[in-house]
Design brief:
The protein has 14 helices and three strands. It is mainly α. It has a three-stranded antiparallel sheet.
Length: 274
């Protein structure tokens, strides 16, 4: 039976860290990210010796690609347990409820006794802080489980460690700073977009799409101008025909011709042909 792999958010192709990777490192990252045995929070335990054959690359190429991913702080690796933690899986596949948080706690509670445990818990906690209100309300439960895990303040020495370790809390601090800068830089433009958009659903997904787009002032003005025209378009008079804000942004709908205009132009073409 053919193995089924998970889907990957297309937003990853706009991620600068991913786009800057060499081809083999991209392939390895996608392999990790979509592997059938990866846990929801980004943990993957799988024999490293089998991966080169899975991907059709040499062992040397695998080791080089893995070292690159570690250096770029996209994964954490523990060779002792053939363990990989893909740091941003929860960014692309965020939890939605307290039940999801409980599932993540169960996964982390039974992971191997890796020297990366403290960093993994910290990284996941940072992603939960970015998630929906329902998930944030479950943070105390996660933090209680983290405390019960009795994580060491310093990692145990491990001669098989690959790449440079990240100091405790560094992932979280870096992520919070990036979040603050993005909100400061892109927040005002998004507020104008949200205020102008006639169908206000899935705001978090719209914000994610906005951050991927990273619009400058000129593009923000273009989008707002398009929305001003579309609210009078016959096709947008019924809410069910208005795309979700995230869809509008992801598909760059401001580049589409307004439906009313398209019909008018088509009719003019027909009239000219008579």
């Amino acid at each position: 039976m053919q193995t089924q792999f998970a889907k990957i958010s297309r937003g990853i192709w706009w991620n600068l860290a991913f786009r800057s990777l060499p081809a083999t490192s991209k392939l390895l990252f996608i392999h990790f990210f979509s592997h059938p045995q990866i846990k929801w929070c980004g943990l993957l335990q799988y024999p490293f010796k089998a991966i080169p054959a899975d991907l059709g690359i040499t062992t040397a190429a695998f080791r080089s690609a893995l070292a690159t991913l570690v250096k770029q702080e996209m994964v954490l690796v523990d060779h002792k347990f053939d363990l990989v933690f893909v740091i941003n899986v929860l960014k692309w596949h965020p939890p939605r409820s307290s039940k999801d948080v409980k599932g993540i706690i169960n996964i982390l509670s039974v992971m191997p006794p890796t020297h990366l445990a403290a960093e993994i818990w910290e990284s996941v906690e940072g992603h939960l802080e970015d998630a929906s209100i329902a998930v944030q309300n479950a943070l105390p439960l996660f933090q209680e489980a983290k405390a019960d895990a009795h994580l060491p303040s310093k990692p145990e020495p491990n001669g098989n460690q690959t790449g440079t370790r990240l100091e405790p809390n560094r992932i979280r601090r870096k992520k919070k700073e990036e979040r603050r800068k993005k909100k400061e830089h892109f927040g005002s433009g998004f507020d104008l977009f949200w205020k102008s958009y006639p169908r206000k659903v899935a705001q978090e997904r719209a914000w994610d799409a906005w951050l991927i787009l990273e619009p400058d002032d000129k593009l923000v003005a273009t989008i707002l101008k398009d929305l001003k025209a579309r609210v009078n378009d016959p096709a947008w008079q019924e809410t069910k025909f208005i795309p979700h804000p995230s869809t509008y942004l992801n598909q760059k709908r401001w580049t589409d011709e307004a439906l009313g205009t398209a019909r008018k132009n088509k009719w003019q073409e027909i009239e000219k042909g008579k």
